[in-house]
Amino acid sequence: MSAYLDHAATTPVCPQAAQAAFQVMTEEFGNPSAQYAPGREAAGRLRERRAAVAAALGCAPEELYFTSCGTEGDNWSIRAAVQHGRRVGRHIITTAIEHSAVLETCKALAAQGYEVTYLKPDRRGHVSIADLEAALRPDTVLVSMMLVNNELGTLQPVRQAGELLRRTGSAALLHTDAVQAFLKVPFTPAQLGVDLLTVSGHKIGAPKGVGAQYIRAGLKLSPLLYGGGQENALRSGTEATAQIAALAAACQAWQADFPQRMAQIRDYALTALSSVPGLEIVSPGDAPHICAISLPGYPSEMLVRELSDRGVWVSSGSACHKGRPSHVFAALGLPKRTLMGVLRVSFAPSTTPGEIDALRESLVEITKSRIAMR
Description:
Elements: E1 3-4, H1 15-27, H2 37-57, E2 64-67, H3 70-84, E3 91-95, H4 100-110, E4 115-119, H5 129-135, E5 140-144, H6 158-168, E6 173-177, H7 189-192, E7 196-200, E8 211-215, H8 241-253, H9 258-273, E9 280-283, E10 290-294, H10 300-309, E11 312-313, H11 327-330, H12 336-340, E12 342-346, H13 353-373
Parallel strand pairs: 1-11, 3-4, 3-5, 5-6, 6-7
Antiparallel strand pairs: 2-8, 7-8, 9-10, 10-12
Helix pairs in contact: 1-8, 2-8, 3-4, 9-13
């Protein structure tokens, strides 16, 4: 049987989201900025869908802004935050295991004269709040720390970071990339104490091309895009009403027991895969839908290809790496043989034990064939 086990890269569009997008494209195509009846109707539906996504995130509708993707949200958050703190300083703190959307933006700012401190994780992929406190300076304008790592499934101490910033009276803004956390682990922006938070639709059953950005009420930021004044004049441009409808539908279709289902299949996978000769668990994952494994000595690119030939689809890291070595796994300081054979396995509520068995059996076949060739 085929087995798609790369849901951290992207998820199938759920039927409710597809139907919602189709309905907007065929029946509700009015421009929300138009003043005649179809436009006013579209604006009303946009308000309803914003409220639905905000309810899923746990924030006020006025704090939620629609974007095209998580990368856009991360870029917007970081650039707007340093502009906001321009009179405070030019120091940024992030982690060495962030998504490339964060790291590349920080790299670009470093080229413009900003100083960036990268917090390193421990061997299990967790960043220390003590390290953050040690790195914090009076001129720090931003702390950007993801909530769930996209390759390890590890939870990072974002809530503790918010408490630290408040306790020390720091002027730094706190941003979290919550793309892999949204609807998978319990949180609200207020509980985390963040100023900015980024999510993406295609990780939860919505189509690619839509995301959402939380901006804390009262925080005054520079616009991402100038133009017609949409999204409270912070991100001008005609709203992607079909994608937004799909995102709202995906949020409403998400069931409360989905994280539990994924945690159960993750635990089954960790047990089943442990029987593969030589396999190591790199990260069991704190979040319910991601874990990382390794077959030391087997190049991960080869494993991905051979598994794909058998109808089993996993990745060697974030899809954004496009086959390049993962900076996340490298940051763990793994032995070279372990590092070369790392795979990410990620799940959906619909993932079955049979799909896990297919992965296990395929990995056993690969190890046997390699032994036979020696």
